[in-house]
Amino acid sequence: MSRKRKPTYILPPGETPTALDLRVLDFQERGFIVPPRRLILNDEQIAGIRRAAEVNTGILDMLEGVIEEGMTTGEIDRLVHDYTIRHGGIPAPLNYEGFPKSCCTSLNEVVCHGIPSDEEELLDGDILNVDVTTIVDGYYADASRMFCIGNVEPPLQHLVTTAKECLDIGAAAAKPWGFVGDIGRAIAEHAHRAGFTVVRDLCGHGVGLQFHDDPDVDHYDTGHKGMLLVPGMVFTIEPMINMGTWRVFIDEEDGWTVVTDDEQPSAQWEHTFLMTENGVEALSW
Predict the structure, then answer these.
(1) What is the pLDDT of residue 2?
(2) Residue 136: closest CA among 45, 12, 67, 252
């Protein structure tokens, strides 16, 4: 339990609290970090996110059938853009805070936010993360997958597999009326047992009504409980697992590309999850 905090879960004047409201307010009164009420989404909002998620997952499914050795990441970006527009969506990364492309393509030692390029060709043995976020009717869904190009060496394949296991283990640790900190603790334990490290400088996040929202979802053991997880919240889990050090740097030339500090490989998987009374439900994967 933590000391008393400034209230964040505030009911509109005159509104009768629901059973869920009362339960959150009890946690708040006891000094825990609770989500603002706006993060507890209603059925209409969740239905909107599901529509965005359907397109978002469709993009990654489409890429599963076409990504191959010899392609460029610029070609991948155009495929993502065209599919998104054809299916009534908007690629959220395009022009977001100046990002120039419709998806992120992160190759080998690039942790995340890699910028697609016609000069970057996929080679036999590469590992690639493609991260897509789609807006449909104002709602957002976000997910990424790893793609193994050709004959990937066993240590790299183990890294990719472990990163997916970390995502699954983190999702299993996310319980209704549990805490965000449970997620990172479970992920870090599995990654370290496998001999890998977990990036600390980037995290999962709330999503759905906007691209990035509360809560921050750290993927390592912060030593803190973090925010209460309440049914109706939507957020990503997206652990970045490194073969060497967990430390990273941002490429000074483009201001976006995040690279492992020792330039050893990194792998990441990401899903958008809805918290329900029975645990998380994957909306986009």
Answers:
(1) 45
(2) 45
